[in-house]
Amino acid sequence: MENLDLMVLRALHAWRVAGRRALLATVVRTWGSSPRPVGSILALCEDGALVGSVSGGCIEDDLIARYSSAHAAQAPVMSGIPGGPPAFLKYGVSADEAHRFGLPCGGTLELLLEYDPDPQRLAELLALLGSGRLVQRSVRLADGAVTLSAAPAAADLALDAQQLSNTFGPEYRMLLIGAGQLTEYLATMALFNGFAVTVCDPREEYRRSWSVPGARLVSGMPDDVVQSFQPDRRSCVVALTHDPKLDDLALLEALASDAFYVGGIGSRRNNEARRARMIGHFGQTSEGLARLRGPIGIYIASKTPPEIAVSVMAEILAVKNGVRLPRDVQVAQAKNERELAHNDPGAQVCATR
Questions:
Q1: For the segment 110-158, what is each residue's pLDDT rounded down to a tens digit?
Q2: What is the CATH number of domain 172-336?
Q3: Which of 45, 88, 130, 180 could make an S-S bridge to 49, C-beta 3.0–4.6 Å?
C-alpha cells in the first residue's frame, strides 16, 4: 500500500483527468482532541467516491452528503458546498455537533475545501513526488491558484490570510536485509503503513520461498544494494539475517547515509559483538556507531516472528514520527532491569521507578 497522501492525490488526479467534479479537503486547524492531524487530506468525487480521511468517519459521511447534493439537480444550493474559490468548513463548534460527528470531547476541526483542482498541476505534483522530491504546494485562497516549489525539509502546514502551504514528500522506503520469516511479517506491516519495501537476499534458498506481494525482491550483495538504494531521510535499513557477512557491511553503508533508522536484529550479546567487530575490523568508533540500533524494537516480551515484527515496526514508526522512546521500553534496558529484578527480588521496586 503506497503513501496515503499519494493515494489521495492520484485518485483526485484520475477523477479530474476524466472530467469529473471533485474536491480536495485539508485539515487546517484543530482545537482540543482531533482524530486526524493538521495537514491530513481527503479527495471526494461528485459521485460520492472518497479516498483519504479527515476524521473517524462521520465528517466524511457529511461531506459526501453535502457534496453529492450540491451536484444533484433537485437541490443545487442546499448543501453548503456550492463550489467556487477555496472555502473553510468547521466541525464540532458545539458539544452537540462534536458528538454528532464523532469528535472527541471538546474536539473541533476546520477544513479547507478546494473545488475542482487543476489536473495539470496535480500531474506536475505527482511527477515531482515520483522522482523523490519534497514539494511545497501553496494554494492562493482568493482563487485557488496553485504554485509548486522545492521544499528543503519537511514542514508543518502553514496558513495565513492569503494562502495555505502544505508539504508533500515521496514515499517512505524500507530496505530489509534477509528474506526470512520475520522479514515477511515486517514487510507486510511496513506496506500497510505506507512504506515502499525492498527486500535484499543473495541466498537463493530464501528468495525461492519469498511470498509477500508488493515488496520488491533483489538478489545483490547487501552492501551493494544499500549503495544503489541510496537511503535518504525518508528511508530505513534493517538487517535481519543474523549473518555478519551479510548484515555488517550493509549496516556500515547505511550508517554513512541519511537514513532515519538503521538497525540490526540480534540479542544484546550479538549486538555488542557486532559493534566490537565494526570498531576492531572496520575502523569505526563508538561515536560513529551511535545511530546503529540494536537490539531493535521496543520491549513487549515478544517471542514469535509476528510479535517481534510488531516490536520493530513500532520503534521504526516512533523514530519516523519524532518520538523519543523512554529507556524502559528499549529492549536492552528492559531486559537488564528484568534480570536484575529476577536475581535480586529486593531490587524490583528500584528497577521499575
A1: 999 999 999 999 999 999 998 888 999 999 999 999 999 999 877 889 9
A2: 3.40.50.720
A3: 45
Can you name the residues that pair with 25 across neighbouring β-strands? 42, 113
Distance CA 166, CA 158 (A): 7
The reported pTM is: 0.72
Q: Name every residue whose Cβ is closer than 8 Å to that of residue 81 and which is 6 or more positions away in sequence.
A: 23, 63, 66, 67, 70, 87, 89, 113
Closest alpha carbon to 178 in 208, 211, 212, 207: 207
Neighbouring C-beta atoms of residue 2, cutoff 10 Å: 13
CA-CA-CA-CA dihedral for 337, 341, 347, 351, to nearest 10: 30
Q: Check if the beta carbon of residue 8 is closer than 8 Å to that of residue 52.
A: yes
What CA–CA distance (Å, rounded) separates 171 from 234? Answer: 7
Counting every residue, how long is the chain? 353
C-alpha cell at 190: 511496513
176: left (phi over 0), alpha (psi -120 to 50) or beta: beta
CA angle 270, 272, 277 (to 5 degrees): 90
CA distances from 11 to 5, 7, 144, 329 (A): 10, 6, 19, 39
| Residue pLDDT, tens place only, 18-68 | 999 999 999 999 876 666 789 999 999 999 999 999 886 778 988 998 888
- Cell 543474523 sits at which residue? 242
